[in-house]
Amino acid sequence: MKKVVIYTDGACSGNPGPGGYGVILMCGNVKKELSGGEADTTNNRMELRGPIEALKLLKEKCEVEIYSDSSYVVDAFSKGWVYAWKNNGWKRKDGPLKNPELIKELYELCQYHSVKWIKVKGHADNEFNNRCDALAVAAAAKYKSGVSEENNVRDTEYSGVLYEKIFNTDTVFKGRVFSVDVADVELPDGQKSSREIIRHNGGAAIVALDEDNNIFLVRQYRIAADQELLEIPAGKLEIGEDPLACAKRELEEETGMVAGEIKHLFSMYATPGYCSEKLHIYFARDLKQGKIHRDEEEFLHVIKLPFDIAFKMAMNGQFSDAKTIAGILAVKNLI
């Protein structure tokens, strides 16, 4: 298991009042800072929220050391109080348990990992604890106006920079078609967050019409959609491959047609929120007979339809594939 060291601290102005937490996570040479807060909270809630948010960032089981200057949090686990509270239905023997939902959430996160709790002296000479304290105080300060940051900032129009800076990336999956990265990012306001990104080489697709304005489509079963879809011919780009060459290849391999004339229409991101796949859409005319050569494990039917019928199907919602709809609509104005 990976070994992760976590420092955490909480702060509150007024107790109850505006509060914040600060966290530092360290794993090998990677170091990450995290902070957040609430407009109306307590110091103990922020001391609990820090390790909760830190443990939620871990994507696999880890050996974790958590350093905190909060006796309230450290003693609850190192002295076994939390187990008695759990057995008593998240109640204390002598009365109600404060912050039971946070204590339960932290307990459940600790059960997944191997966690060791270590008490440190607050406001002393521990650089990481002092840094966490500074992060917590700064986070709490954002709420001192009495209006939550969510209402104070997020409910107003934003006009600043948009760029997010990636400062660490972990590849958590690598397959034949795509890989998956989890990236730590710095947001435009300086706060830290994470992004899950599907990395894909991209693809090329082609709207191919014969001399009678019939369009060539392929019908195939798509397991992610759990249904057969009618699509324009398309395929995945190999690393460094020219999209035009890919489009020509896929047209012949899937339909048996070779284009004498081909034009780039546009390029598009189908799902840019989490996937890097960029699709290049082409328009082909002057078709000649070539030779079908389907990829291994590729099973499809070639369908030829009058383009006017295909256009009506696109307008009536009879296509479910985004690249097909976009390609057909783009070609409508060219013929």
Outline:
By secondary structure, the protein is of the alpha+beta class.
Lateral strand order in the biggest sheet: 3-2-1-4-5
What percentage of the residues does DSSP assign to strands (E)? Answer: 35-45%
For the secondary structure, the number of strands is 15
User: Which descriptor suits the 3D outline?
Assistant: elongated
CATH class of the largest domain: Alpha Beta
The biggest beta sheet reads: 5 strands, mixed
Instruction: Give the low-confidence spans.
Output: none
Radius of gyration: 28 Å
Explain the overall architecture.
- By secondary structure, the protein is of the alpha+beta class.
- The protein has 3 domains: 155 residues, Nucleotidyltransferase, domain 5, CATH 3.30.420.10; 34 residues, no CATH class; 130 residues, Alpha-Beta Complex (Nucleoside Triphosphate Pyrophosphohydrolase), CATH 3.90.79.10.
- It has 9 helices and 15 strands.
- Strands 3-2-1-4-5 form a 5-stranded mixed β-sheet.
- Helix 1 runs parallel beside helix 4 and helix 8 packs across helix 9.
- The termini are far apart.
Question: Which secondary structure elements does this structure contain, and how are they paired or packed?
Answer:
Elements: E1 2-12, E2 17-27, E3 30-41, H1 43-56, E4 62-68, H2 71-78, H3 81-87, H4 100-112, E5 114-119, H5 127-141, H6 149-154, E6 165-174, E7 178-186, E8 192-200, E9 203-208, E10 214-222, E11 227-231, E12 234-236, H7 243-255, E13 257-269, E14 278-289, E15 301-306, H8 307-315, H9 322-332
Parallel strand pairs: 1-4, 4-5, 9-14
Antiparallel strand pairs: 1-2, 2-3, 6-7, 7-8, 9-12, 10-11, 10-15, 13-14
Helix pairs in contact: 1-4, 8-9
